[in-house]
Amino acid sequence: WETANLPFSETKAKKVSYQRTVKIESDMAMKYVWSLYFLGADHHVEVYWNEQFIGRFLASMVPLNVRIPDRVIMKGTNNIKLVFTSAESASQQIKSQSLFAKKIYTGSAREIFLVGSPHIWVSDVKYTNKFNETLTNSDIKYTVNLSSGKIENLLKYQNASDSSKSNSSTAASAKIELFLKKKSTGETIATANPKDIKIESDRTLSETFYMNVSNFDLWSPDQPNLYEIYIKISRNGNLLDDWKTNFAFRKFNSYKQNGKNLLMLNNSPFEIKAVSYIDDYNNINQTLSAARLEDDFNLIKTLGANVIRMKYNPPHPYFANICDEKGMILFLELPVYDAPASVINTNEIKVYMQNYAKQLFVNYESRPSVFAYGISDGVVEGTEESSKFFSLLSTLFKNQTDKLIYKIIPFGSSSVDVKNFDFIGLRNLQQKVDLNSIEEEFLRNKILIGDKPLFMSYGALIQPKNHNGYADPLSIEFQAFTISNVYKIVQDNSGCGSIINTFNDYNLNSPILITDNKDLYLASSGLMDRNRRQRLSYSTVQALFNNEKEPLLNAGSYTEKAPFSFIVSGFVLGIAVILLINRFKRFREYMFRAILRPYNFYADIRDQRIMSSFQTIFLGSITAFTIGLYLTSILYFYRTSFIAQYFFMMITPLDAVQELLFKIIWVPELSALIIALFSFAFAAIVAVIINSFAFITQARIYYNDSLVLAVWSGVPILILLPISVILIRILVVSPATIWLFLILYAAVMIWTLARIFRSSGVVFDVRMSRVYIIGGIFFLLFVLLPLGFYQIKFSLFDYLGYFSDVFLGI
Prior knowledge:
- By secondary structure, the protein is of the alpha/beta class.
- The chain has an 8-stranded parallel barrel, surrounded by 4 helices.
- The two termini are 53 Å apart.
């Protein structure tokens, strides 16, 4: 055991245990009902009290209240043990395999309280209010839940003058009073009729109260007029419990006015001016202090935003309270980001999301600042699985809340399921799309969704020290340029607003290729960095949100160039091949026979004809470097593409492998060298496999002969050499030709593999059908075993389907 201070963002373990002792005096143990209140922990928490297992609970950063049974509480010293575990299986995939998933921290990232409540207490309050057309009168319905502990303990501590003390030891009467007060002055503006109730031990009662209120002030981000619900529970004049919670008069809805689809706040058109906020700060990670939360709120308020989209996690209750009091609308979301429909429609995820949603309702439904709930972001539309998921969750929300419901869809959707959704968001998952295409896609989706308001969610990843001008897609100026232009596209085309991604930089769960930052785990998409230093984009957004003059942006000059070393290397390799062919007669003969008369060539190897080891190794080196140049050209061109980022996230789930890969991709010379070495090593491994079969069959084939077979079978690879010299330049001019070059590469590799099989058949003097069957089995095992593991562990094929739908449009 080590000493630990909570709250803390634990990064080292997927499972962590904490324990401590607390002293509860004898009279306090009897007088109160005890519970643990978690403000935010990940993912599951197991609670043990005095070595007794209380339960395993879903936390997932949503506030959680766990009652401790009276039977396990001891008078005096008590031991508390908490075991936090990360998500597993599909729940883990949902959290970690989205495009830019935030860092997952184990343990309790927010505070934990040990709370003592009286034996009759207010456990929950919900309300709804119905307005008249002019919003000058409101009928309010309150639902108050009362819970009880051991009534006999309550009666034991009643005043001796309590005449009912001897009446019963299993039930007690109490009086409930409810008041509505103006928070700024404490003035009571309305009172509900009090109620007398009778409650038994360990029960929960639900009581309904009604009020009719006039002459109130409406709540909005500009004028956050706040009221307070105050509830008292008393018995024979003695106060047992009281409860306060924020209340506001405001009305949210969507509406069509003058041909425009609008969001409405208090019967007035409302434009979303939002930023995505992610709990993260340098050194303290997800564990933000109250002071830090206040400072962040003030920075967002100064920005001119009227909405905060809580991305990945719901807000700290204290942060939500600040939004209530100082005027800021909150969008809360289910943690469903860039996920395949087949994964989210599994029973595991559906149950997880339903439980998560119910926890949101318990903790945030009555918050005045909560405007809307998001169901998903980036899920492919138009599939049976996604329709089932949307139907299940949107119906749940509609039955539980009067808040608005939205989802964010990716570019390229051919249809949109709008049932039960009040407004829709649109998000571009392609890093390099021109502004005309964005505007066309926005207008196309407006037609698709019909009478639903449409907003855009957008931003840009950057290199924090890149000031090359907005012509460079990784520059600080490009981020400001993109935000400014897309914001105007949304406004000019009657969108209902914008969500800027993101307010702050944050730590990622996996490395990122796109930005080539020193810290590969930094999502540098923020208007501010992790230390809250402002960027140019902060000033730009502030000007846009407040209709002020925007800062001037430097265009700079930037063009995509092929590394000069590629051209030099390609010419050197080409010249080397020509020199070998012209200068060495035997090499020339081998080359032409390997291509035109492969059977005779392989027969010579079988008959132990002398082959130059130097020439074989030289040829192997040239073909290996050809593969290195060809693949590196493709990788280097796509180094700033979301396509490459998502693809590598799928095929290389180990972070250490991704880190190494991403670093070398940005150094093309090193990348080409490493790929060449791996290619030559692969040829050597193939030679080992061939030699192993020779040993089993007792054929007179030595390793040198096997290496000759492996290397000379790859002669067709030389076709790629002249193309690799100019490949990047072609892709810059016409990116769509990538399919031609990928097909060409696949065809050459299949040709090479077929030649290896044929050479083996000749050398071992067996029927070709037998060689192809055995070789095919080994090839399938080599491919299918890793794929099977990836499918079980990471749902590879589901995510590949998502990749093809969203990024490739197949």
